[in-house]
Amino acid sequence: QVQLVESGGGLVQPGGSLRLSCAASGSNFRIYDMGWYRQAPGKQRELVADITSGGSTNYADSVKGRFTISRDNAKNTMYLQMNSLKPEDTAIYYCNGRLRRSNGVMLGYWGQGTQVTVSS
Questions:
Q1: Least buried of 40, 81, 90, 120, by fewest C-beta within 10 Å?
Q2: Where are the strands (E) in the chain, listed by range?
């Protein structure tokens, strides 16, 4: 069994910073592409940033220059460093990963989400 677990969300003032973590646990798998998504009230879930197994990154225009996605393959962990946070960044943030199990099956997995609230 494979699970993705997010952590690091919370309440922060505008201009502040947070670092989100997504840890993969289980056995008999390899992690390939991963990404962070978010869903604000009344809106559809959207891609924030993603990172390939080779380390290539991509960001939504709304977060370029403020957010940084990274991964530590030795720890099976992905991070999202969020700086200069704005109220419009308020959302539930979800971790997504494409994992290949030892049986050769490639599957997508979602974490349970972590709440980020940016408010004065």
A1: 120
A2: 3-7, 10-12, 18-25, 29-39, 46-51, 57-59, 67-72, 77-82, 91-101, 106-110, 114-118
Instruction: Return the half-sphere exposure (C-beta side, CA atoms, 13 A cut-off) of residue 65.
Output: 3
Residue type at position 110:
W
Residue 70 near residue 78 (C-beta atoms within 8 A): yes
pLDDT confidence of residue 2: 87
Q: How many CB atoms lie within 10 A of CB 104?
A: 6
The pLDDT, as a whole number, for residue 98 is 94
Sequence-distant (≥ 6) Cβ neighbours of residue 9 within 8 angstroms: 18, 20, 93, 114, 115, 116
pLDDT band for position 46 (cuts 50, 70, 90): very high
pLDDT at residue 102, rounded to an integer: 87
